[in-house]
Amino acid sequence: MDFWQVIKKRHSVRSFDSQKDVSDKDIKKIIEAGKMAPSAGAIYPTNFLIIRDQKTKIEIAEAALGQYFISEAPVVIVVVADIEKTASRYGQRGRNLYAIQDAAAATENLLLAATALGLGTCWVGAFDEDKISQILKLEKSQRPLAIIPVGYKKV
Ligand SMILES: Cc1cc2nc3c(=O)[nH]c(=O)nc-3n(C[C@H](O)[C@H](O)[C@H](O)COP(=O)(O)O)c2cc1C
């Protein structure tokens, strides 16, 4: 698929074929694409948590205000920004802007890479941050910014 096809093809998928798994190889490629996104000061504060455990996926869906389609996907990627890493160089602007922008750029790369691999995704931003941090045992400086279910679209 060429670049323009990928751009046009990407759309939010909210119904996944739970019987069709996503390979670790594809997840690795998707994460690599996320890591290649630009980053203010080349600090790269974004981390990608990969969740396959069904119980955890259901907890995440609950923390995302009951968006249960998230737990139908075989893989859920949670995009997390280490905001203090960027703040240590750029202060408030790093904490409140650059770290968030970095994570958003990385998230878009994830979505496009998944599309290029024939996979469906949805950028989920409506969730209780404290609950997600609790479920994933995140440090205080680690801010969860996007939840991305990844799977084959149910036809
Ligand atoms: C920051 C952000 C947060 C979003 N949060 C959610 C969400 O919580 N749940 C959801 O189903 N879609 C969410 N979306 C997806 C949008 O609803 C979707 O991108 C929009 O309707 C356009 O459709 P498309 O992605 O198919 O082009 C979010 C998108 C962005 C960029």
What does this structure look like?
This protein has helices spanning 3-9, 24-35, 54-63, 69-72, 83-116, 129-135, and strands at residues 46-51, 75-82, 120-121, 142-151. It is globular, with a radius of gyration of 15 Å. It has 6 helices and 4 strands. The chain has a 4-stranded antiparallel β-sheet, sandwiched between helices. It has a single domain, classed as NADH Oxidase, CATH 3.40.109.10. With 155 residues, the chain is an alpha+beta fold. Helices cover 48% and strands 17% of the residues. Residues 11-12, 14, 67, 122-126 line the site of flavin mononucleotide.
Unreliable residue stretches: none
Structural shape: globular
Biggest β-sheet, characterized?
4 strands, antiparallel
Query: Any idea of the CATH topology?
Result: NADH Oxidase
What oligomeric arrangement do these chains adopt? single chain
What is the H-and-E element order?
HHEHHEHEHE
What is the CA–CA distance across the termini? 20 Å
Helix content: 40-55%
Output the CATH class name.
Alpha Beta
What tags apply to this protein structure?
155 residues; alpha+beta; NADH Oxidase; 4-stranded antiparallel beta sheet; 6 helices; 4 strands; 48% helix; binds flavin mononucleotide
List the helices and strands and how they pair.
Layout: H1 3-9, H2 24-35, E1 46-51, H3 54-63, H4 69-72, E2 75-82, H5 83-116, E3 120-121, H6 129-135, E4 142-151
Antiparallel strand pairs: 1-2, 2-4, 3-4
Bound molecules: flavin mononucleotide.
